[in-house]
Structure prediction request, 429 residues.
Amino acid sequence: MKILISNALIIPMTKEGLSLRGDIGIDGKHIVFVGTGDPSFKADRIIDGSSFLAMPSLINAHTHVSMGLMRNYKDSLPTLQAWLAEIFPIEGKLTTDDVLAASRLGIIELIQSGCTMFTDMYFEPQATAQAVIEGGIRGSIGVTLFGDLEENKARVEEREKLLAPYVAQAEGRLTLNVAPHAIYTCTQETYQYAASWARQHGRVFHTHLSETKKEVDDCIAQTGMTPPAYLAKIGVLQDVKSILAHCVHLSNEDIDLLKSFDTTIVHNPSSNLKLSSGIAPIASYLHAGIPVALGTDGASSNNNLNMFEEMHIASLLGRVVDTESEKLTPYQVLEMATKGGAEAMGVEDRIGTLEAGKEADLLLIDLKKSHLTPLNDPFSALVYAAQSADIDTVFCQGTILMEQHKVQTLNEHTVMDEVQERWADVLRR
Prediction:
């Protein structure tokens, strides 16, 4: 199908400060032009974009998408460690069907907040993969590892076979990565195996790192090194594309070390604030040359998957915690949520910006809102004023996943009802 979006305000995210008024042509999965229209392009459908802002879809670079089951549960605990002590026993009760229902709910929430790709780390990944296919978005599904080497080897082999049919069915929207949970839940040998597997298969290595001061202090006490130095020492970060979630507590030496590897830090400001983990000095990382992407973490430590809210909080924190010469700009935050996420996942040649030849993952944002009037600087408007409720239409691979605020691929009310029932059942187990 050929779709023409006419006369929209376009933020292509290809150059800082660039915005233009023009057209976007979509032919099947791909963008065929951005800006000046092609007279030979005969659209099957024309969308009047005169009241819309068009921009790349957002990428949630670190989440646990099915943890919405535990949303608004055990929220007043003082630390990450205290919270995990309450969450781990609940997770031990979850079934594949629980994770499937919660993944469907999370994907609805992602679509509603303008996100068409997420990087996940959780149990029962085949259930999340099924929800990805049903929802029509993109998922990078992590084979999550805990504990000792032999059980993790078996888990990876099993999950590879289990997920292969889903990957084949998803038309390029589903990939597999490896995700050792953290240095305090995985052995050295598990980390080394995970990194080796990622190198061998050309996949992404995804882990939590330096999320809390306790994690850092414990690692120093046990190994004499900070978490990044430990991973580098055991050969985990070399020659692999890695995603390091959180990185709230990095020393100057850690920063110098990480910029020598092919790694991206994923900023999760809401979760870090809620769990009292601290505030990552993201502008300092960018200034040092370390790529940064944006994530929500799970909806039980956030408590939502709203990437527009995450951009807003990241922008505000980035104005107060860094030095006078290192403050986040609106464009940098938008880049973290779009192009930065695509680069972290190695899919920047396909998505993350609006350019001819790339796949058509984009949003149409309704500008006819009191809180967006006058618009003035559209980049500031997107991170300081826009709400996820302003998103009218969401495309992924040229397919409309949401139009006029209504998700097209999953039944929101049916999914919510099932999640309510399943959570009540979990609490009875």
